Amino acid sequence: MDVEGRAVCGDGVTIATACRCASLSANLAFQGKDPYPGLSSDDPYSLGWDWVTGEGPRHRDYYYYYYYYGDEITELIRSSESMEQLRLDTLEQWRSTGQPQGSVAYSISESGKLRALKKLITTDLPAIVTHDGDHLGEAFTGSYNLNYTVRGQDPDVSLVVECTMKNNTSNESFLHYIGYYDWLENFTCEEGVFSSVDQKIVWTERIPAKEK
């Protein structure tokens, strides 16, 4: 038992959590996918290089399931500063609607273009240079939507949530600090150098009932 009276196995992981991990792995296996994914060597720098050079697959899946296994791309998003607010938004939305599925969003231009430019200069570019884990993920993605599915509740009413984020590394997204406009789609390439790379990032986590 842990300090909250929950049954645990190794590394402080609850038995309920371990069972959910096994269930998620089984679901991947039934879909013909690797049941233990998340071992990609990709990081924002290598992914950016592949976008520039046109190397590698144009669609990539990334995973992170609790403490067991995961990849760097997913961990950077999961641990980014922007996720702190999105966890609060997820809790609030679930409590107000009662629906197990929903979507929350992080926007770099929510406070205006000048604030977005300031963030680029003072936060995102330094994060790229220094490999700052708190901000590198969101510097890489820019604005993003996060879809969530509530998979269950622990006895302390914390939520077990599967999060899914889709991102596209492209000429259009590279210019996201000037805003998103229809004419930017004209610069999108489907193959060759500077061709778009789609990513689907999936992870499952426990959101405490009283998220700070």
What does this structure look like?
This protein has 212 residues and is of the alpha+beta class. It is 36% helix and 22% strand. The protein is built from 7 helices and 6 strands; from the N terminus they run H-H-E-E-H-H-E-H-H-E-E-H-E. Strands 2-1-6-5-4-3 form a 6-stranded mixed β-sheet, with helices on both faces. A hairpin with a 5-residue loop joins strand 4 and strand 5. The N terminus is likely disordered.
Mean pLDDT: 78
The whole-angstrom Rg is 18 Å
Q: Order of strands side by side in the largest beta sheet?
A: 2-1-6-5-4-3
Q: What is the tally of beta strands?
A: 6
Q: What share of the residues lie within helices?
A: 25-40%
The secondary-structure element order is HHEEHHEHHEEHE
Q: Which key terms come to mind for this protein?
A:
single chain, 212 residues, six-stranded mixed beta sheet, disordered N terminus
The gist of it:
This protein has 212 residues and is α+β, with helices and mostly antiparallel strands. It is 36% helix and 22% strand.
Write the layout of secondary structure elements.
Layout: H1 15-30, H2 44-53, E1 59-65, E2 69-70, H3 72-78, H4 82-97, E3 101-106, H5 113-130, H6 136-141, E4 144-153, E5 159-169, H7 171-174, E6 197-207
Parallel strand pairs: 1-6
Antiparallel strand pairs: 1-2, 3-4, 4-5, 5-6
